[in-house]
Write a structure and sequence with these properties.
Number of domains: 2
Distance between the termini: 46 Å
Number of helices: 11
Strand order of the largest sheet: 2-3-1-4
Shape: globular
Structural class: alpha+beta
Strand content: 5-15%
Order of helices and strands: EHEEHEHHHHHHHHH
CATH class of the largest domain: Alpha Beta
CATH superfamily of the largest domain: Transposase IS200-like
Helix content: 40-55%
Length: 296
């Protein structure tokens, strides 16, 4: 039976569920969970998506991702592919790590978003050590919301904090009570969060991903004060930065595949495109001004 096409939208928030194949644990040690978070952080930089909630367990995990204009399949393939490579190398095995494709559901409204976040955070109740204090589990974003922290540097918490006004101690207590009784993502929301400071209004700004490659190259060349034609000159140190950053930006913001980029950069190989993207990403996040100006 053929697979059903995945429901997608570049403006959507998704509930992502990952699970290991039956014979292995997806995260054998805490350092494996930390590695998965490192990969999330890396690809958040590349794709500029946002993470509103997470919970990693032994054989599965939940994420709430705002794709922010990007493609959810590209995001999850990048993260899971790299993690599978890490896992197989570390534990001296080969073959699949994840059970089939990741599962995803689109979040349709703000009430569902709140109950879904509570359902994700409720997963920790299955751990005997945390059954009575689920808010202390290190690999759940509930701890971050309750303590107003961001330990792993991957949580974009302001959206939910503003939505439920979690700066209020009473609202945080109410949310924790909601989490403790939310054992189903379809639970009815039977609580109202006091808005003690201001009226909440969603101001999500979606990043465009349909820039023309020529415009990207023009921008990068102008920023670096170089000739845009240099992007097609191979083996030149003078234009290596122009080529790398242009390659990275095209992969993120032009909605084109690697083959297209190969042609644009002068019929180079996909291996070289991958290398240039990686180098370009490192350059961009050393000089964050270029990304800020591009997105502005």
């Amino acid at each position: 039976m053929p697979r059903l096409a995945r429901e997608k939208s570049e403006r959507s928030i998704f509930h992502i569920m990952i699970r290991s194949i039956s014979e292995i644990d997806l995260f054998k040690k805490d350092e494996d969970k930390q590695k998965y978070f490192e990969l999330i952080k890396k690809y958040k930089q590349k794709y500029q998506f946002k993470l509103y909630a997470y919970c990693l367990m032994t054989n599965h995990g939940h994420l709430m991702i705002d794709v922010n204009g990007a493609d959810i399949s590209r995001i999850m393939h990048s993260i899971n592919f790299c993690y599978a490579q890490y896992y197989n190398r570390k534990y001296k095995r080969h073959g699949h790590v994840f059970q089939d494709r990741f599962k995803s559901k689109m979040v349709n409204d703000e009430n569902y978003l709140i109950t879904l976040s509570a359902y994700i955070h409720n997963n920790t109740k299955d751990l005997p050590m945390y059954k009575d204090h689920i808010e202390e589990y290190e690999f759940s974003s509930l701890k971050e919301y309750m303590h107003q922290s961001n330990t792993f540097g991957i949580l974009d918490g302001l959206f939910l904090i503003d939505l439920m006004n979690l700066k209020s101690r009473k609202n945080r207590d109410d949310y924790l009570n909601l989490v403790k009784k939310c054992d189903n993502e379809k639970n009815e929301l039977d609580i109202e969060f006091e808005n003690v400071e201001y009226e909440y209004r969603s101001e999500r700004r979606i990043i465009s991903r349909d820039y023309k490659p020529s415009k990207v190259i023009e921008f990068v060349a102008a920023y670096l004060k170089e000739e845009k034609e240099g992007v097609r000159i191979k083996y030149s140190r003078k234009y290596s930065k122009l080529r790398a950053i242009s390659c990275f930006f095209m992969s993120c913001f032009c909605n084109i595949n690697q083959k297209n980029i190969c042609h644009i950069l002068g019929n180079i190989t996909q291996t070289n495109v991958s290398r240039l993207c990686r180098v370009g990403m490192e350059m961009v996040f050393k000089d964050k001004m270029i990304l800020e100006r591009f997105l502005a």
